[in-house]
Design brief:
mainly beta; 2 domains; seven-stranded mixed sheet; 17 strands; globular
Length: about 220
C-alpha cells in the first residue's frame, strides 16, 4: 500500500519533515481531509506483511489515507427523487421520497465512490476472491449500496435498511463503482471489514474494521 499519513507517523518520517520546515508545535495536529467531489476509492483494500488493510485512495492525486483521516461530504447536489419504479423501493417510496446518491457514473460535482482491490496481486488469495463486509451504519437514516444494469435495474450490494452485516464480493486486481444512497441528511459512520483465504496456506485473513465518515447535507 502507498505510504499513508499513518505510516509516516509510525516511521517518524513525518516528524522529520515537520522539523525541517520549522513549523510551530501546534501544526503537527492534523484535521480530517475533506472531500466534496473527485474520484475516491472510499474502500481501498490492500495486503501487506500478512495483513489486510482498508484505506481511502484519492485517485485524482494518488494519495492514500486512513479512513479516520477523511471526511466525505455528500452535497445538496446529490439529492434526487427515488426513481418511479417499484424496483427502487429499497430507497424509499418510488417517485416520492428524496435520497442523496453518490453515483455509480461519475458526476464531477460529487464524490465518485469506488471500491478497489487493485493493490492485491493475483494468486495471493484463493480464487482471487475476497469479501467486503458492511458491518454497521450509524446515522440518522439508512445506507444502500447498489449497481444498475444496462437497462437501469438495480442490484443491491448492501442495505442497512434490511439489516446488516451484508457482504460484497471482490476480486483481486479489480476496481468497481456503485451508487451509495443515503435517505436522510446528517452524519453517518459506516464500518467495513475485508476477509480472504490465503491460497498458499488456507488461512483466513481479516482486516481491522475501518470506519468511513460521511456528512450528508440537507
Amino acid at each position: 500500500m502507498r505510504r499513508t499519513l499513518r505510516h509516516l507517523l509510525a516511521s517518524g518520517a513525518l516528524g522529520v519533515a515537520l522539523a525541517a520546515t520549522a513549523l510551530p508545535a501546534q501544526a503537527a495536529t492534523t484535521s480530517p481531509v475533506v472531500f466534496r467531489s473527485g474520484h475516491l476509492d472510499v474502500v481501498d483494500v490492500a495486503y501487506e506483511a500478512g495483513m489486510l488493510e482498508i484505506g481511502v485512495h484519492d485517485e485524482d492525486d494518488d494519495v492514500e489515507y486512513g479512513s479516520d483521516e477523511v471526511k466525505l461530504v455528500v452535497t445538496r447536489q446529490a439529492k434526487v427523487s427515488v426513481p418511479a419504479d417499484p424496483a427502487f423501493a429499497f430507497l424509499g417510496t418510488p417517485g416520492v421520497s428524496k435520497v442523496w446518491i453518490l453515483p455509480e457514473i461519475q458526476n464531477p460535482n460529487l464524490i465518485w465512490p469506488g471500491i478497489a482491490a487493485e493493490e492485491i496481486e493475483s494468486g495471493v488469495f484463493a480464487g482471487d476472491s475476497l469479501t467486503l463486509s458492511v458491518r454497521s451504519v450509524a446515522g440518522p437514516g439508512q445506507l444502500a449500496i447498489y449497481t444498475e444494469n444496462a437497462v437501469g435495474q438495480p442490484s443491491v450490494l448492501a442495505d442497512s435498511g434490511d439489516g446488516l452485516p451484508d457482504s460484497v464480493s471482490l476480486t483481486a486486481g479489480d476496481h468497481t463503482h456503485a451508487n451509495w444512497a443515503f435517505d436522510e441528511a446528517g452524519k453517518y459512520r459506516v464500518t467495513v471489514r475485508a476477509t480472504g483465504v490465503l491460497a498458499a496456506t488456507g488461512q483466513q485473513v481479516t482486516s481491522a474494521p475501518a470506519t468511513l465518515h460521511f456528512t450528508v447535507k440537507a
